[in-house]
Design a protein that fits this description.
The complex is a heterodimer of chains A (157) and B (294).
Chain A: E1 2-7, E2 10-15, H1 22-29, E3 48-51, E4 54-57, E5 70-72, H2 85-92, H3 102-115, H4 121-127, H5 139-151
Chain B: E1 5-7, H1 12-22, E2 26-29, H2 35-38, E3 47-50, E4 60-63, E5 66-70, H3 75-80, H4 82-87, H5 89-97, H6 101-104, H7 109-115, H8 123-128, E6 132-137, E7 140-145, H9 146-154, E8 162-169, E9 174-181, E10 192-200, E11 206-214, E12 221-222, H10 224-230, H11 237-254, H12 261-284
Parallel strand pairs in B: 1-3, 2-3
Antiparallel strand pairs in B: 4-5, 5-8, 6-7, 6-8, 9-10, 10-11, 11-12
Helix pairs in contact in B: 10-11, 11-12
Classes of the chains: A alpha+beta (157), B alpha+beta (294).
């Protein structure tokens, strides 16, 4: 069957199998390898992408369930070759160490800021509670997200 | 994974037509967050019917004397819906604590019940609220009390049944609460969970008490012996201590010989306190309908 959906602003039609996961289609058929398969069961968040404005674990979404949906992956957040504000803030705040969790972490933070441009620290923590990081201890990640939120005019992300 | 076919109905009628055609080889999924982890083998060679794009399953409404919601409502929506916080507080509290943001964005109340996990956080609140589920199979549509639905699901008695909606009766002067204990604060399967609903009399005493416990047996259940201890009492520490004793007796009976018993018999005491004191605070807040936002 053919999966028709929009990925990072481009309409796509991709042949899929009924049992394929969204994550494997993004990685293996579209070459978007930013989203990672860490645990494969929704515990680690390394596969997080945005589907119709909401953060989802792409390892827990059947590709078929993405029919007609708009997906944003980490590859879609930079514009015109320039890093997104969140990406710059992660770099600037030392929120990236090994980097494995980073694409998922940024997509969770992005989904939060799309919906809530001025989150509290508690809201930031809740938004990334499904993303495991084993390097940074989260402090710099939260600082990076907070810094972007503080610099944002409402709705400008 | 296994080989199966997949269908994506847009209406309940279409979903039922797919199920009728596939007979015993059909299985419904909603968000699929549980199913994708461990359910795929159950549909080998059959038809998977994906309900995620059936809009008829995604409403939350107050209708006459019930709060009614489609079975396809996600936990994110339940956790952020003011009507649910006002009318079914314990369900909103449970929804806010299920999985992670990503999982709550996909997982649905119908899927949580249908998956019939012993620790499902959505089930004790629905039981405590005297909720019913609209179960549809072929031409038969009926509202099934949660207790009956859960025991039938665990006994494998509801194959090919579509859960379309849940309804919660709205009672005057009533409040409810949900508490759980897991191994970490979020993204955690409950080791124990409890939900309760009471109605209060003018002098602040409890009546019409419902108390449901999950993760201590094959499925969640109402703890009627402990409900009786609660009747006529106000929600204070003395009551919490008594309920804790009653719940420990239940845990001792259910988990005799299990390695988890020493931990869970202590844990349930803490949950009893959390539950009673949270309901007490909600009563002081002047809870009406089925509770108010914390």
């Amino acid at each position: 069957m053919l999966l028709e959906f929009v990925v990072n602003g481009e309409a796509k039609a991709v042949p899929i199998e009924p049992d394929e996961k969204l994550l494997t289609v993004l990685r293996n058929k579209l070459g978007l390898t930013g989203a990672k398969e860490g645990c494969g069961e929704g515990e680690c968040g390394a596969c997080t992408v945005i589907m119709d404005g909401q953060a989802v674990n792409s390892c827990l979404v059947l590709a078929y369930q993405a029919r007609g949906k708009e997906i944003i992956t980490i590859e879609g957040v930079s514009q015109d070759g320039q890093l997104d504000e969140l990406q710059r803030s992660f770099v600037h705040n030392g929120a990236v160490q090994c980097g494995y969790c980073t694409p998922g972490m940024i997509m969770s933070a992005k989904a939060l800021l799309l919906r809530n441009p001025k989150p509290t620290d508690a809201e930031i923590r809740t938004a990334i509670s499904g993303n495991l990081c084993r390097c940074t201890g989260y402090v710099n990640i939260i600082r990076a997200v907070r810094e972007v939120a503080e610099n944002l005019g409402e709705g400008s992300i | 994974m296994n080989c199966f076919k997949i269908a994506g109905p847009r209406t309940i009628a279409e979903a039922l037509a797919f199920a009728a055609e596939a007979g015993d080889n059909a299985i419904y999924i909603s968000g699929g967050t549980d199913w994708l982890v461990n359910g795929a083998k159950k549909v080998a060679g059959g038809l998977l019917i994906d309900l995620t794009q059936v809009e008829e399953l995604t409403y939350i409404e107050e209708r006459a004397d019930h709060l009614v919601m489609g079975a396809g409502v996600t936990f994110s929506r339940i956790a952020t819906n003011p009507l649910v916080w006002e009318k079914a507080r314990c369900l909103a509290q449970a929804a806010a604590q299920i999985g992670s943001t990503q999982i709550r964005n996909r997982a649905t109340i119908g899927g949580n019940v249908a998956n019939a996990a012993p620790a499902a956080d959505g089930v004790p609140p629905l039981m405590a609220l005297d909720a019913e589920v609209l179960a549809i199979k072929g031409e038969i549509r009926r509202w099934v009390p949660m207790g009956e639905a859960v025991s039938d699901l665990c006994g494998g008695l509801m194959p090919g049944t579509l859960f379309a909606a849940f309804r919660v009766p709205l009672l005057l002067n009533s409040v409810s609460a949900f508490v759980k204990l897991g191994s970490r604060s979020t993204v955690s399967v409950a080791k124990l969970n409890l939900a309760a609903r009471i109605q209060t009399t003018e002098d602040g005493r409890s009546r019409n008490v419902r108390l449901a416990m999950g993760a201590a047996a094959a499925n969640a259940f109402r703890v009627t012996a402990v409900e009786k201890l609660w009747e006529g009492r106000s929600c204070e520490e003395a009551l919490a201590e008594e309920l804790a004793g009653g719940l420990v007796t239940q845990v001792d009976r259910l988990l005799a010989g299990r390695a988890s018993l020493p931990y869970k018999r202590e844990a349930i005491r803490g949950l009893a306190y959390d539950l009673v004191l949270d309901i007490g605070r909600a009563v002081e807040d002047g809870g009406r309908g089925n509770g108010r936002k914390a």
